[in-house]
Amino acid sequence: MKIVNDNSDPGTVTTNYTQLISANHAAFVFGPFSTLLTAPAAQVAARYHYAFPEGAGGGPLVFSLKLPNLFAVSPVVADQLIPFAEWVASLPASQRPKTAAYPMVDDPFAVPMVQNAQAILQKAGVKTVYSKVFPAENPAYKAGADQVAHKKPDMVVIGSPDVPGVQSVMQAFMQQHYTPKILAASAGPDQGAAFLSAVGGPKNATGTMVPNGWYPGFNNPLSHAFVNAYIAAYGGTPADINADAAEAYSVGETLAAAVKATNSLSNAKVISYLHSGVTVQTVQGPAKFNAIGENVVAAHFIFQWQTGAKFVQVLPTTATGSVAIVNPKPAWGKG
Questions:
Q1: From the CA atom positions of the chain, what is the Rg in Å?
Q2: pLDDT per residue over 116-164, tens digit each?
Q3: Taking phi first (over 0 means left), then psi (-120 to 50 degrees means alpha), and beta for anything else, what does residue 124 get?
Q4: Helix 267-274 × helix 243-262 angle, to 10°
Q5: Which of the two ends of the chain, N or C, has the fewest CB atoms closer than 10 A to its terminal CB?
Q6: Cβ atoms of residues 117 and 128 within 8 Å
Q7: Is 8 left (phi over 0), alpha (psi -120 to 50) or beta?
Q8: CA dist., res. 308 & res. 335, Å (int)
């Protein structure tokens, strides 16, 4: 297994995959991290007729390419905040937020997800008082967060692809002594111990919500085995395992299933098998792919940090394992 650094640069990722396939003659390649990097990497793999299973590139940009070799094992990004938005819209009028803010970084993962949620919430009567997309090169999280805090909306949905973005917004809110009643982010709070450390501990994290297709307590036998093996290898607790690890592992499981079923290391046979309508099982649950590589049976969950550093499934409310939502979010340093 050869692992190379792309420095989060689309140009570098193109060079890397070309090298892996044409010079290193790798039997298979896996996708990189993020929609931004997955799109160019998948195109390189397609030119060489390589299968391209990936777990962290589920934005519309990737699927708009309509590549025949792409297999995204994780939930489609644009839909991931829909359970959250529908829950907010369903709240009784006395509990439903009246105003909302949507600070976002210009990222093909974060923006579509947040804007889809925003559309649902506006239709439900939640007034948008702030909606701005910051440039990815130098995201103005601090300035934007200060503006949001000044407006004091009932709800904030942060469009961020990582922990630092959410950290910047939450720290600005703390400095301004402003706590939204409902707080969600596209990504960041799903990063376990890294997120808790970044925001100053569990008491600041309590009440924060985030979408994902997996969490350490996911009720799935393969997931249970994965969590146990991870802790045996690296130590810590289940809460320390971020979803990226499960996404990457699911990619490996998907390829392994195809190789075993075809009894072959042929990329063409792997592609044909994964496009045959078969469902493969992963730590994130089942995966079945349509013509453009979307996992059409992926689960969409919303998770929340609750008192005592507990990261729990809360939505859909009808899903097995979902617990009651903490609402409203406690003030910073409480809960």
A1: 20
A2: 999 999 999 999 999 999 998 888 889 999 999 999 999 999 999 889 9
A3: alpha
A4: 110
A5: N
A6: no
A7: left
A8: 8
Cα separation, 107 vs 159, whole angstroms: 8
Span 201-222, pLDDT tens digits: 999 999 999 998 888 888 889 9
Q: How many residues does the chain have?
A: 335
Please compute the mean of the pLDDT values over residues 239-245 and round it to a whole number: 85
Cβ contacts of 295 within 8 Å, gap of 6 or more: 71, 72, 73, 74, 75, 76, 287, 288, 289
Find the helix packing angle between 110-123 and 82-90, rounded to 10°.
20
CA–CA distance, 283 with 23 (Å, rounded to integer) = 32
Collect all residues with Cβ–Cβ distance below 8 Å to 152 and sequence separation of at least 6: 178
In sequence order, the β-bridge partners of residue 325 are: none
CA–CA gap between residue 23 and residue 15 (Å, rounded)? 11
* Tokens read off for 251: 């990619």
Q: Which of 259, 229, 255, 258 is nearest to 241 (CA)?
A: 229
Three-class secondary structure of residue 134 per DSSP: strand
How far apart CA 284 and CA 298 sit, in angstroms, is: 8
Token readout for 198 is 């970044």
Tens-place pLDDT, residues 268-323: 999 999 999 999 999 999 999 999 999 999 988 999 999 989 999 999 998 888 99
State how far the Cα of 57 lies from the Cα of 61, in Å rounded to an integer.
Answer: 9
268 CB-near residues (< 8 Å, 6+ apart): 49
